[in-house]
Amino acid sequence: MLCLAKRFAPLLLPAFMASAAIVPVNLDDYRDGPVIVSATDAAVEVQWQDEAGRDWSVSFRRDPSKPLIAFLSVGGNIVLRDAQPHYRVETGIRRKGWNAFFDYPPAHPQGTAAFFGTLDLDGLRVETAGNRIRIHCGGFRAGPFAGSVVYTFFAGSRLIQQAAEVLTDEPEMAFFYDAGVEFLAPEQLLPGRNMDTPYAYYDTEGRLRKESANGFQPERVPHKVRFRAMATAAGQGSVAAFPAPHQYFFPRDFTSNLSHNWHRSWRGRVSLGIRQVRDTNWQFYPWMNAPPGSEQSLSLFLLVGDGPPGTVLEDALRYTNRDRFPALDGYKKLAAHFHVAYTEQALEEHEDWVPPFKPVLQDMGVDAAMIMDFHGDLHPRDLTSLRLRELDSFYEACKRQSGKDFLLIPAEEANVHLGGHWGLVFPGPVHWWKNRPEGGSFVSRDPKFGTVYSTADAGEMLEMVRREGGWMYQTHARTKGSTGYPDAIRETEHFRDPRYFGAGWKAMPSDLSSPRLGERTLTLLDDMHNWGLDKRLLGEVDVFQFDHTHEVYAHMNVNYIKAERLPGFADYGELLEPLRAGDFFVSTGEVLLPSWEISGTDTEIEVSLDVHATFPLRFAEIVWGDGHGTQRQIIDLSGTGEFEKRSFRWTARAPGWKWARVAVWDVAANGAFVNPVRR
To answer: Which of 47, 302, 478, 670 is the most buried (most CB within 10 A)?
Structure first.
């Protein structure tokens, strides 16, 4: 705990108890607006109205010897009192570059180090950003990180963003962080210094749990929850805490719920927040990146209200649509790249068995899923009829799980002949071997399976894909098993062929200095178009088996494909055609682009865009290239509010542009983007 750590740590007691001068306040960047700030000799006070027009206020103390936030109230009723931020970071050493996934900081010979954050408040700076106010509280440190704790207040909202904005000069640093808020709760104190602290969360079965902490446990108690959010009683209201829904979760192979939320009630003080774990007993667990000199934003979202914990919790879940990708007229939602070993299990189960991943995807509003079996399961390299039988079982099993409301599309991460790891999907069942059986030929006939291909090299692989109307894409480009790809094959016939779609997009690696997700492949997308190739990004998830107890949504994205209907299994190729044509956008779910148009002249790009968003938006960007380099125009969207539907028209001066794309990002780094339009 920031200030509390000093109170209880003997070495820090003298610094905490020493009489301190009132810290200065810098108002140079403050402008009048819907969020009002005033400074007194004792405090900086912020006032604003929420979505219902209720008056909120918060007071930041200028005395560094006391808890940072004197009070937060609504209509004069105090919700938070004597509140302060909590941070803990753990640092390690990155060994394989900033794009590395196959890394494991706890295994480094020099080990890892953990630090609690401390706030030796040395100043308050007020910044107006559109219809928002940011209060910078200087003097924060957590081991090798130094900077400020920044609170952002949004006009027309009860949402508050708390972020430690910090830098480090250490090279090759990997890290993760825990964050929270702690406050005084005398109304919950009982005789014996026990507590009665109501709190609420959804368990992994989806049941709303309303419990009470008795104050017998001094530790921060982890909870395995659904929706990544908890709420607790606070003063004359409640507060919920939750992370940025996708950005906080660095990439993993597995989505098991690691109890990312915690709660503490102890001797008159209450705290809650978010956490990561250092080790999952798996060899690949890369943590987050902190390149030297980059400003990392260690974010936590708080939602305050004057109702009970359950009510405020429900309000918090609206920001992710309760982890459901919203329906849009004229679109179907496809999620891609899952290794769920479905066929191997289906062969052992009865025909009406429903795999555990299916209801999870359906509950998230996914219309179609592209799964990739034969990735460590069954016999993908077999050159006998066993491979053909397993493929046939794969197709039949996918057909059984498909219906009028859900489509399961068979695909495969083939990973032969073309370079790196790559996905392959056909518009219908195709039987093939990944090499040539002894005495075999490129094309043969099987009495049961019909045409069978055996691909001995990249040329034959491409020919098979052309004949069968399939397409390919580079999975997890420039990392994992595709490190160095597709760069290494950019001049090959198969990569330059239109049947090579492009690459997959995923929030990997994790770098909290970026306001975007997935910069690795967004940069690749721009590179490919500057190479003169009309390639695209497909949103991919790339995780292994999961069920309803897992934290899947944090790792999800979907492709919103322009399609009026969901085809049946026999016609699933219908859904792939608009995808291959680029008639779709990729979204994390909180930002949607129901319509867009990119056009222009030789010197100017014109963009028309409809945007639906839950969190307040941060910025949009028009990105373009001339075949030699990439440029972008950032459009500040700090004047937007929460739960808005807006239409925008923008222009960008871009002499000689050959391609352009557009993306929109919110304050939690959630976003949506469309693939480039070429002139």
So the answer is: 670
